[in-house]
Design goal:
A hairpin with a 4-residue loop joins β2 and β3. It is built from nine helices and six strands; from the N terminus they run αβαββααβααββααα. With 199 residues, it is an alpha+beta fold. The strands form two sheets. The protein has a three-stranded antiparallel beta sheet. A three-stranded antiparallel beta sheet has the order 4-6-5.
Length: 199
């Protein structure tokens, strides 16, 4: 990549290193990404990273290279850490992915918007019932906030009631094969929840 590209690509690369780039959030940066993606891929490959780009859904992000047979990649330290998710957060991601698949199959809309109450009810069905309802809701709110922090939900501003948009990048992290095993995973989560609650 030549030095002449640096002023244009540097802010874009920094944005990608910080997280997901959405077309709707930054149309000029998105256009540069589309036009210069070959140079960007060449550059980040030196760092052991891959560019994941979904033009149809309008998002892009960086991930650790999967080329295990490449000797250079194997010796590089990880730039993008793996995140260990709690069972409730993993479960909420699975439930959101399933809801997104159902929404895409039955609706012509592009955006899936859910209320805080809908999110709570989705997760509450799989949590053991306790005597302290307030504590349970607080825990669910914490799980929702974690999913927002991870970038799979976006809280909508200017709404009297809490509304969240399910981000389509969730489809890249929870794929169709994962969804096919959904019922089995729910059974596993139920066992894990019971074990956690027993502690």
């Amino acid at each position: 990549m030549s030095a002449s590209f640096t002023p244009v690509l540097s802010p874009l690369l920094i944005s990608l290193f910080k997280g997901v780039l959405y077309r709707e959030d930054d149309a000029p940066a998105w256009q540069i990404l589309i036009e210069q993606q070959t140079g960007i891929r060449d550059y980040i490959q030196l760092l052991g990273l891959d560019l994941m780009l979904d033009e149809a859904e309008g998002y892009a992000y960086l991930c650790q290279s999967q080329q295990d047979d490449d000797a250079r990649t194997g010796t590089l330290p990880r730039l993008i850490p793996r995140r260990q998710l709690s069972y409730p957060v993993s479960l909420l991601l699975a439930l959101l992915r399933k809801r997104l698949a159902e929404f895409d199959a039955s609706s012509g809309d592009a955006r899936l918007i859910l209320s805080r109450e809908q999110l709570i009810e989705m997760l509450r069905l799989f949590l053991p019932e306790g005597s302290n309802e307030v504590r349970l809701i607080d825990r669910i709110d914490n799980h929702i906030n974690k999913v927002v922090e991870l970038g799979f939900l976006r809280k909508l501003r200017g709404q009297q009631d809490a509304l969240y948009e399910v981000q389509r990048i969730l489809k890249a992290f929870v794929d169709a094969q994962w969804l096919n095993e959904f019922d089995q995973r729910l059974a596993e989560y139920a066992v894990q929840f019971s074990a956690e609650e027993a502690k």
